[in-house]
Write a structure and sequence with these properties.
The complex is a heterodimer of chains A (514) and B (356). With 514 residues, chain A is of the alpha/beta class. Chain A contains 15 helices and 18 strands. The radius of gyration of chain B is 22 Å and the shape is elongated.
Chain lengths: 514, 356
């Protein structure tokens, strides 16, 4: 995406546009993580901070403040970060990088409603400005369950932490879920925006930080050979899949009552749909992108008969990948009568000139065949074939598949003659292995996103309008489901309930096996 | 998979590559051809670095090992031996070691040409002993990017002068690559508010062309006098930008952890480790367009160098007691001018890791 949406300072003599080697380094700043003892923080955020520092992208004096209920001193916090960095960081461990980082680590102990802790946080930040030259620039990362968002942001306001001193910034970073329906999302946005202005609120959708997702834009708008066929004249339909092989694990408390559609379709899949279907933005700055994404999201239409074109499912016990796994209702902490969906599929249409009549099938689920996320553009068959039907019996639809994870890359499927004296045409695939060849150095999504937060570059973050529009799309489906029966059962380790296959069969199509 | 071919031809090597790729079953999308021109003694380190870099840039690596031979009989016997390595521990992509015996060693072009990946960029890297004029070299003409290393020459500063004179778009030098971390920290420091800069100092090891390049870059970009100070090293040890209210100083005495001091702000540590050759090559391969910033910096010295040719006498004092007296950058440049009169390119014993 855009290389530098907002490089600070207009006239730094050492920077020129020809000098492409110089990376974007964040200005003096610090990061405060609430809920720093959580999994996400240990497995993703801390390693990402280290990897950024190791790549020389963090400013000298960068400081990391942890906030949690533990009774820790700065050194204990340092140890925890050290361990997580050693275990999870992508880049090799270097003592000097670690020293640079460790000097700026602070820990503030307390609960979210504890005024004293926030007074303490404030003085910690003031001290960091003096000792480390962070210049008053701080990002507050709320790695906490959403029910605590209001408490934390109000505390930040109350203690004057959300108000940036002159010539500095204060930013809030929040993780999904952004509410569980339109009303709650609006309420949440209101709470956060009361304290932080909308352009200082960064909503993390880690999918958007992935290289392949950013590559969708490069693929579509930097090339000429795809755009001419990227429309209803050539595309038959689009399938967007995000499948997980794991169950709900220890997330019963969060997951039950939320379900896969709210957990995945509302944010990740609709974002992928927007990037796949949107028109070319005027530029790659955040505003132009959000304009185009919103435009296409507003054109999204739900099917009229929700019963025929949406499906939800719930996994039952079975064998997956050689392991016996429990059904959803038998998982720890799940109500035996739960109607939460662990699988969701739906057909959406986009009412505009480019896509009218091209269905977009979205599906997601837990305990499916394997872990995979992909966008498949399935093309129409040739309008006329000079070959006999027997020759092309094995020929399917041409397809272009963007593999988001794992094994990031792009596959193109087309027909080719089978060697031999007969004319026989069969599908072959051509592979661009983005993931395979570049994994070692392609940065983790969180690295990119954290750096963008510090740089104030909002390109890869969904705006509140997008979040609200996505709920508008999903809410009627959830309402319909709530009033109509139970999720269809499907055996763990399969590709979802039969009803989902039937849903596509009714349209004369079938799901790809990803 | 390894295939050894003795007394072979380029087309047999191509056939072996196809065979090896089929056997391994790998279909990695290779993005460029990297040609390494070296000799028997140095090829191991260079290939190791390139293989590591190929993790990031899957490439076909052609290692051209010249063996002209010592005796007239050896010289008369032209022969091509090749070793094809695909898959396994050679990183992503394919590697071909080409041993050019006898007269053939003067005609590497004819061997390399048929082995280039179709329609993909070509990079030529001379880890040591670069030709005087890389862009005119027959192998060099094949390449979008020509990588030399001034630090591996007998007289690095002289080598820089030569590079500046023969610069053509696509040329680059590892001495320049080594200072990217320094340059990015300095640029980031100047992103913040600061008073006007009146002069600057760059301090580093004596035979370290990166120090000179950093000084040249600062002089060129800032338009202020820059002094080149000799220190015992390792590598570059400090940069001082004199501003109205003090000094912006980036100081790295130990080669790994630096301290950034800015007037009115607390001192801060910055990790500035000296990078391995593999990291340098990986950075080089990231961009294949002409490096105009390098051109500007390296050429900045040439003008200076012609203006004051007569200050070479300052040098002996500095050599006798490094750091005791500060020879100016201009003196260093003058030394460069002297060096060029002699043999500009000569191999030095040490290589592999000579970071900034």
């Amino acid at each position: 995406m855009s290389v530098s949406a907002n490089q600070p300072e207009q006239s730094n003599p050492l920077r020129t546009s020809q000098d492409r080697r110089l990376p974007r380094i964040a200005g003096p700043s610090g990061l405060v993580i609430f809920g720093v003892t959580g999994d996400l923080s240990r497995k993703k955020l801390m390693p990402a901070v280290y990897d950024l520092a190791n790549r020389g992208l963090l400013p000298p004096g960068f400081s990391l403040v942890g906030f949690a209920r533990r009774d820790w001193a700065d050194e204990d916090f340092c140890d925890v970060v050290h361990n997580s960095v050693k275990q999870y960081a992508r880049t090799p461990f270097r003592e000097e990088v670690w020293r640079q980082l460790a000097e700026g680590m602070r820990f503030v102990s307390g609960t979210f409603d504890d005024d004293e802790a926030f007074v303490n946080l404030r003085s910690t930040i003031d001290r960091l400005d003096k000792e480390r030259g962070t210049g008053g620039n701080f990002a507050f990362y709320l790695s906490v369950p959403p029910k605590y968002f209001p408490t934390v942001v109000r505390q930040l306001k109350r203690h004057g932490l959300s108000e940036p001193p002159a010539d500095s910034w204060r930013r809030a970073v929040i993780e999904k879920p952004f509410g569980h329906d339109l009303a709650s999302a609006q309420e949440l946005n209101q709470v956060v925006h009361e304290v932080f202005p909308p352009h200082e609120v960064f909503r993390i959708d880690h999918y958007l930080g992935k290289e392949t997702v950013q590559n969708i834009l490069a693929l579509r708008f930097a090339n000429t050979m795809f755009e001419p066929i990227w429309n209803r004249s050539y595309v038959d339909h689009v399938q967007i899949t995000m499948a997980e092989d794991i169950g709900i694990g220890g997330r019963a408390g969060y997951y039950d009552g939320i379900g896969s559609a709210r957990d995945v379709i509302q944010n990740h899949l609709l974002q992928l749909l927007a990037l796949t279907a949107m028109e070319e933005p005027a530029s790659f700055d955040a505003d132009a992108l959000v304009t185009e994404k919103l435009k296409v999201l507003h054109a999204v239409q739900l099917p009229e008969d929700l019963g025929r074109h949406t499906v939800r499912g719930q996994y039952t016990g079975g064998w997956q990948g050689g392991q016996k796994v429990a059904g959803y209702l038998d998982e720890d902490g799940i109500d035996r009568a739960s109607v939460t969906d662990t699988y969701a599929a739906m057909r959406l249409e986009i009412d505009n000139r480019r896509w009218a009549g091209v269905p977009f099938y979205l599906r997601t689920g837990k305990r499916l065949g394997r872990r995979v996320t992909e966008i498949a553009i399935v093309f129409q068959t040739a309008p006329y074939s000079p070959f006999d039907t027997t020759d092309t019996q094995e020929l399917g639809h041409n397809a272009l598949v963007i593999r988001v994870q794992p094994d990031e890359g792009i596959t193109v499927r087309f027909g080719s003659k089978v060697p031999g004296t007969q004319m026989e045409i069969r599908d072959v695939t051509m592979d661009f292995a983005y993931g395979e060849s570049f994994t070692e150095s392609s940065p983790e999504a969180y690295e990119r996103l954290l750096l963008d937060v510090l740089l104030g570059d909002a390109n890869l973050f969904p705006r509140h309008q997008e979040v609200e529009r996505s709920w508008e799309i999903l809410d009627p489906v959830e309402d319909f489901w709530a009033g109509h029966g139970r999720p269809e059962p499907y055996t763990a380790g399969t590709w979802g309930p039969k009803a989902a296959d039937e849903m596509l069969a009714r349209d004369g199509r079938s799901w790809r096996r990803p | 998979m390894n295939i050894d071919l003795t007394d072979t031809t380029s087309s047999q090597i191509n056939a072996a590559l196809v065979q090896a790729r089929r056997a391994v079953g790998s279909a990695v999308g290779m993005v460029l051809t990297l040609v390494i021109v070296t000799d028997e003694g140095n090829h191991y380190d260079a290939l190791k670095a390139a293989s590591e870099a190929s993790q990031e840039h899957p490439s076909r690596i052609l290692v051209v090992i010249k063996r002209p031979g010592r005796s007239p009989r050896e010289r008369a016997n032209a022969r091509l031996d090749a070793e094809v390595r695909v898959g396994g521990d050679v990183g992503n992509g394919e590697t071909v070691l080409l041993r050019l015996h006898g007269e053939l060693s003067a005609h590497a072009y004819s061997v390399v040409m048929p082995l280039l990946l179709p329609d993909a960029p070509v990079v030529v890297w001379w880890p040591e002993e670069a030709p005087g004029h890389p862009a005119d070299d027959l192998l060099g003409t094949l390449a979008q990017r020509r990588i030399t290393d001034a630090a591996s020459t007998e007289d690095p500063v002289a080598a820089l002068g030569l590079r500046a004179r023969v610069y053509a778009p696509g040329d680059t030098d590892l001495a320049w690559t080594r200072i990217t971390p320094w340059r990015s920290v300095l640029a980031a420091a100047l992103d913040q508010k600061h008073a006007a800069i009146s002069s600057a100092e760059v301090e580093g090891e004596e035979y370290n062309p990166s120090t000179e390049l950093l000084a040249l870059w600062l002089a060129d970009r800032l338009g202020v006098p820059v002094e080149r100070v000799v220190s015992p090293g390792p590598g570059i040890t400090a940069v001082r930008l004199n501003v109205a209210d003090g000094v912006i100083c980036l100081d790295r005495p130990d080669g790994s952890l630096a301290t950034l001091a800015v007037p009115g702000q607390p001192d801060r540590h910055v990790a500035l480790h000296r990078r391995s050759t593999a990291e340098l090559i990986a950075e080089e391969l990231r961009r294949l367009d002409p490096d105009e910033a390098y051109a500007q910096a390296v050429r900045h010295g040439v003008g200076q160098l012609h203006k004051r040719p007569g200050q070479a006498q300052a040098v002996p004092a500095a050599q006798a007691a490094p750091g005791a007296e500060k020879p100016t950058r201009k003196a260093a440049a003058a030394r460069a001018a002297d060096g060029e009169q002699g043999k500009p390119e000569k191999k030095s014993g040490k290589q592999a890791e000579q970071p900034s």
